[in-house]
Structure formats: C-alpha cells, structure tokens
User: Fold this.
Amino acid sequence: MASRKGIAITVAILVGVVAASFLVYLLPEDTTMKISVSDFEKHLDATKERASMEVTGIDDSFKKLMDDEISSDEYISIAEISSSQLNSLIIELTNSGATQEWTESYINYIGALKKLNDKITETIVIANLINDDTNSNSINEIVAKIKQLETESLDLIKKSDSTRP
Assistant:
C-alpha cells in the first residue's frame, strides 16, 4: 500500500508538471513592442517636440565643444545618446502604421530625422578631429556640411508639414 507521504509527493509532482505546461501556453511568444497610434497628427506633433528637444540639446553641447567648455569625449558621449534617441524616434514613426493620408508626411519627417542624425555624426567627426588637433580647414569643411544637413532637414520638415492632410 502507498504511504501518505508518497501520494503527496506524487500529487505535488503532477501539479507541478501541469502548472509548468500551462505556463508554456500562457507566456506570450512575441515580446516585441508594438505601437498603436490612433491620432497620427498628435503622434507626429509629439515626435517633433521630442526631436526638437534633442536638437536643441545637441546644438548647445556642440557650441560648448567649439567654445572649449566641454571636452571632446564628453561631447561624443552626449552626441551618441542623442543619435540613439533620434534613431528611436525614426523607428517609432516607421512602425506607427500611418494611414495612407499621413504616409507622405511621416516619410518626409523621417527623412528630416535621418538628416539630423547625419548632422550629429558629422559633429562627432569634428569632436574627434579636435581630439587629434587637426587643422581648422578640415573642421571648417565639415561645419559647412553640417549647415547643409541642417538646411536639408528644415526643408524636409517644411515638406512634412505641407503634406499633412
């Protein structure tokens, strides 16, 4: 005859196996983040505001770099974080599932964010040149390229605004 202790252990094991098998079915398989947007105008406006704060911050930091108020290494770490934030915004807009009427505006704004990210990359190049004590002619050429990227970004932002439904 089976002892009470043996029966209890057998029941505990069976309960554990059943519970574990249910957990397999209860845990979600797809854990990627999904963004559900219902008001595309507000979403784009909020994204523009967040991007504007990033650009303001990076512009202030770049000015401090050029005025020798912060080191190149400090600037590079700030710029890499800002670049990562802009990449997140690009991904968020890309995955938002904009309706057909909003698609062109979103695409133009994504292009503007990519230009801003290119601008940040160029400022990092300048910070590295400053670290290496490279002549100012190279830096001046890159500053001109940065100005061009800013202009292209502003043009794409205007185009995004004009293609809103």
Observations:
- The chain has five helices and no strands.
- Helices lie at 4-26, 40-66, 72-94, 100-131, 136-162.
- The CA atoms of residues 36 and 145 lie 37 Å apart.
- The first helix runs from residue 4 to 26.
